[in-house]
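HUMAN: Mind sharing a backbone?

ASSISTANT:
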Amino acid sequence: MATDANPGMAVTRKNSNWRGGGPRPPVTVLPDSTELVHSDRGDIVGAAPLYEDIDVVRGPVAEILLQPGPRTRLVVRASHIVTDGRGLQHWLADVFRVLRGTDPVGSPATVNDTHFLAAAGKVAPVAGTGKIPTQPTMLGSGPASGRPLWVRRTVPAAPKGVTARIAAAVSGRLPAECGHVLVPVDLRRHDRSIDSTANLTAQLLVPVERGGDWRRIHSRLLTGLLRKHEVAQQLGRDFRNTNPFVNSLTEAAQYTGDAFPAAAIISDHGPFDLTRYAAPTFAPDTIYTLPMLVPYVEMFVSAFQLDDRTELTVGARERPGAVEAARALLDDTAALLLSD
């Protein structure tokens, strides 16, 4: 029922077209012996199910992994080609509505990002940055394995300006005097009548100075949002030919994982209501993401605010010293979240 009400979670791709009626997301029960998390450290163990490919041509484009035990774990995996964080939440909330015996709300819209380009109205152009030079890695050194690692931290604070505080922590470790972070922006904000599970995220490119003050970064973020820079940067121009990272597959292949033009993607999901994801025999006590790797970005940091705490996860490439460096970055982030 939940997937019927959210048909974008059961699609397949043929060439550049998406077709509905694909395989529905399956539910797989993992044995208790599958170790997913080192609870004493907060690192996510690289269990095989977390790395399996998602085939958007044949489907399914999402799946649910359930691991019963003293502390039940529910893992939702989905292709970012098909959906984004907000879209995934729409679908998952409907899954739990059905489990509670109520009707799903549904996300039936089929619009794409061009709809939001029009809905955003007049948007002033943003000057192009040109190609952004790469910088050496901050999280460890040496060859990367090509696999992601994830490091978690729970911080007993839920302040304002989480994205800017994370960006400031990242900026403190920049190899150069300045760098860039990317902030995903939900395009649905330009037309709140749209309910869709599609990937409707545009990236806001934000310059940061090494050791920058989080308040200054926060002001820069707010200005960018007010001026709709995410639309101007990604949708309002010929992004394929003018984006600051790559213009071709040949250029993309030049990113070997040891230097990156962007320091981090920072995704703050904001205050999160766990009760939306409860069922008669399931009451969640926390949520966090396992961020994906992006070729032109060194790390991906995600955050959720749950009442009076913030859940953080750093996703990065597995390389010597990366776990220790990620923990140190989370130390810096926690200090900023706990500060005034």
User: Anything to note?
Assistant: Residues 322-338 form the longest helix (17 residues). The chain has a mean pLDDT of 90. Residues 12 and 23 are 8 Å apart (CA to CA).
